[in-house]
Design a protein that fits this description.
With 418 residues, the chain is of the alpha/beta class. 33% of the residues lie in helices and 27% in strands. The protein has a six-stranded mixed sheet with strand order 5-2-1-9-22-21, covered by helices on one side. Strands 11-18-12-13-14 form a five-stranded parallel sheet. The chain has a three-stranded antiparallel sheet with strand order 6-7-8. β7 and β8 form a beta hairpin.
């Protein structure tokens, strides 16, 4: 049978495999992890609202009833495009069609040394490290006798005002000002400061201006301090230096969280070396209108790793719906090719954007309609429940959110070593 190898079990790889499940093709899905991660809810793990198992599902279980799909846990090491095989985990895998859907990692804009002080949020391990840092900060403030030191532990700085930064700021504000209000004896959590730093002149810059303003208003009601037109020029484990049109400001903080940008990971280099692929300035692979490498018609790159231009010539955003639609499309394209048919070019159907700020607070841009507050929050909940993988995860998250809403508690506030 036609051999398809899929690299990556994220949204793109998962939906491509689903499209090929129980068809007359031999599929091997390779990922360095054995689970699919629902990344849009990572911030909830980072702030203690959900446990890691609530947003992750074993890939093998997803395809237990698809005998034509084999799952291999291994890292991608090499691509040999001219000979139609890859190396992963020290083993050779031949292919007729190759789909690369490995995603991206956080980007520090030339300041890679900042990573050890300001962790990003892309993996389960990232979320657990952030959760540990947040909870540890309050623990340190509880027993500190120095008022200035206590304030530094209770001052949190989030860099990046996109969806991840906004959602993280809102969840952290609810945690600090509501959930743990009575947990400590010496810490006055109402004195906690949460700063959100964004280089653009507005939050959620991909959203309409009206919704951007709504998001800012909702965050400010949660006492989040917003710094627009501002960039970080220096940081370490004790402070953050912020530059704005008004000048520079130094914030003493022990907890800085990074949500400011992304860059391509190791897979980009492997595709460049093995298939002579071209990349954009952040390392994403340039693909044609069928999501393929122009020089190799049987190699597809989808999701966050792909630079796919829309009708206006702009790259598609690195969001889950893009990866899902590209995964479905590539599966259909491969099956059509086996039947001797030609596929139309890929077209992204933008169904809208969502961002949650907090309890009954969100913004939604759906089919040209702009919603905020309670209606947007309800839509956000049902959309995320619908796209979670696995019935058990849907049930657990729905029940956990209902409990959190009724009690204002976040039960996964554990400090663990990872």
């Amino acid at each position: 049978m036609h051999k398809v190898i899929i690299i990556g079990g994220g949204f793109g790889g998962l939906y491509a495999a689903r499209g090929l499940a129980n068809r007359e093709v031999d599929v091997t899905l390779i990922d360095r992890r054995n689970f699919h991660l629902f990344q849009p809810l990572l911030y909830q793990v980072a702030t203690g609202g959900l446990s890691p198992g609530d947003i992750a599902s074993p890939i093998r279980a997803t395809f237990a009833h698809a005998p034509n799909i084999r799952v291999i846990q291994a890292p991608l090491e090499e691509i040999h495009a001219g000979e139609n095989f890859i190396l992963a985990g020290g083993r050779r895998f031949a292919y007729d069609s190759l789909i690369v859907a490995t995603g991206v990692r956080h980007h520090y804009f030339g300041h890679d040394a900042w990573e050890k002080y300001a962790g990003g949020l892309k993996t389960i391990e990232d979320a657990l490290r952030i959760r540990k840092r947040i909870m540890y900060a309050f623990e340190q403030a509880e027993w500190s006798d120095d008022e200035q030191e206590r304030c530094a532990w209770q001052r949190f700085v989030i860099v990046g005002g996109g969806p991840t930064g906004v959602e993280l700021a809102g969840a952290l504000a609810e945690l600090a000002y509501q959930t743990i209000l009575r947990d400590f004896r010496r810490v006055n959590s109402l004195l906690t400061e949460i700063h959100l730093v964004e280089a653009h002149h507005s939050l959620l810059k991909s959203f309409p201006q009206k919704l951007s303003r709504k998001a800012r208003e909702q965050l400010e009601r949660l006492n989040v301090r917003i710094h627009l037109n501002s960039t970080v020029v220096d940081l370490d484990d004790r402070h953050v230096q912020i530059k704005s049109p008004e000048g520079e400001k130094r914030l003493e903080s022990r907890t800085v969280l990074w949500a400011a940008g992304v860059t391509a990971g190791d897979a980009s280099r492997i595709v460049q070396q093995g298939a002579a692929a071209e990349t954009d300035r952040i390392g994403r692979i340039m693909v044609d209108d069928h999501c393929r490498l122009p020089q190799w018609q049987n190699i597809f790159v989808i999701g966050d790793l792909a630079h796919f231009k829309d009708e206006a010539g702009n790259p598609l955003p690195g969001v889950a719906p893009v990866a899902m639609q590209q995964g479905r499309y590539v599966a259909r394209h491969i099956l059509a090719g086996l039947e001797g048919k030609e596929s139309a070019p890929f077209t992204y159907r933008d169904k809208g954007s969502l961002a949650v700020i907090g309890r009954k607070a969100a913004v939604a841009w759906l089919h040209g309609r702009q919603l905020s507050g309670w209606p947007a929050w309800l839509i956000w909940i049902f959309v995320h429940i619908a796209y979670l993988v696995g019935y058990d995860n849907k049930t657990k998250v729905m029940l956990q959110w209902a409990w959190n809403f009724l009690t204002r508690k976040r039960g996964a506030r554990l400090i663990t070593d990872i």
